[in-house]
Amino acid sequence: MTVIIGALLFALYRQLIIEQQYQVTQYLESETQRYQQLALTVDRRSFAAQIRAADPQTALIAWRNSYDMVGALSFMPEGMPMLPQTRDFPILTGGPDKLHILTGGLVMTRYGPVLIATRTDNLATLIDKFISAAATAVMLTIVLTLALGYLFSKAILRRLVQYNRLSEQIERGHYDTRLPLSWRQDEFDMLALQFNNVLDILENNLMAVRGVTDNIAHDLRTPLSHIRIGIEELATKSPDEISEGCAILTEELDHCLATFDAMLSLTRIEEGQQTLDLQELSLAQLCTDLLEMADAVAESNEQTLSLSLLADHKVHGDKYLLFQALYNLVDNAMKYSGQGARIDIIQSGAQIKICDNGPGIPDDSKERVFERLVRLDPSRHLQGTGLGLSMVKAILSRHNAQITLSDNHPGLVVTIQF
């Protein structure tokens, strides 16, 4: 603001100087033409009379005739140039302002050189007053700008200090801390809102990590305890019992290893590290292969497994991964719906539904079951890793497909939309 106002005042000052010079030049030129024409049209006596009659408040005209000085001066200043060249010179008067500054020069006429000058000290005084007023305005602008800038910066720094203090609380582990939002809805509020969203995601991820850790400890503690007890008991068993015990311990270890392998595979799929073997697939053929694979298991559980193909649809995907995802869903339906249940596979265009008439899943758990190592309490007694549905969702996401769970009254409906 100070630089802009200073530049404007300087431009105005330059304009005043130029205007002053222009007015003086125009006036002297007009007076020059006037007295040159006057000398050509009147005699010497009339010419002298016209010079004596000139108003000294408007212009100063002086002419030296053969006898004395005619006009407002008692003598001709030395070194005066010929117009349009000009020079400033002072004169003393008897009025209240004794010293006047004039600007003028000589003009040649038929009766000799005539001094033509005009007063310029009034304009100089006006310019001096303008400079003083401009300097005062600039100083006031600087003071006002600094004051407003200080208040504005203090308001900004106050919020930054508050954000810094809250960030230190978050750094110390208080992840429920959030940055405040004001009524202004300015850039700081936009930043705080975005930062709060990041904190929400971070807190949810931390809660998920803690949940995964708890689930790992819960699911692996039992088989590891069995392995430890089995190893201790091997020392007291016969060779045949040792062979049988080793087989059981190996099965328990395989279950633990399968859990960690599944977690690594899930991470590779979610992060896009596993390359997909893309090819054109028929969803109807995929469901047909699924029925052939799972039908024997359903018969052993005295369950009914049916397939309905309404309209085929082609997709580009990894056949092995998609079949694995679909089989996991059908296997879950057979495992948790109970003996004698009915499982229906319905394929219609780009949609596949897997329906059962088992106990279903509560509404508040339909999204939670897709998290890693989450197993609902009624299923804890069944062997599994708790990663099946997480793997299913990761595979379908890589194939741009969505999976939703809904009630079948009774039972569960799993809907896959490619």
From TrEMBL:
EC number: 2.7.13.3
Major site of localization recorded for this protein: membrane
GO BP terms in the entry: phosphorelay signal transduction system
Superkingdom of origin organism: Bacteria
Annotated organism of origin: Shewanella oneidensis (strain ATCC 700550 / JCM 31522 / CIP 106686 / LMG 19005 / NCIMB 14063 / MR-1)
Pfam families in the cross-refs: HAMP, HATPase_c, HisKA
The name this protein goes by in its record: histidine kinase
Source organism phylogeny: Bacteria, Pseudomonadati, Pseudomonadota, Gammaproteobacteria, Alteromonadales
Catalytic reactions of this protein: ATP + protein L-histidine = ADP + protein N-phospho-L-histidine
All residue ranges annotated as the HAMP domain in the record: 154-207
Protein localization: Membrane
GO MF annotations in UniProt: phosphorelay sensor kinase activity
Enzyme class name: transferase
Start and end residues of each Histidine kinase domain: 215-418
InterPro entries: HAMP_dom, HATPase_C_sf, HATPase_dom, His_kinase_dom, HisK_dim/P_dom, HisK_dim/P_sf, Sig_transdc_His_kin-like_C, TCS_sensor_his_kinase
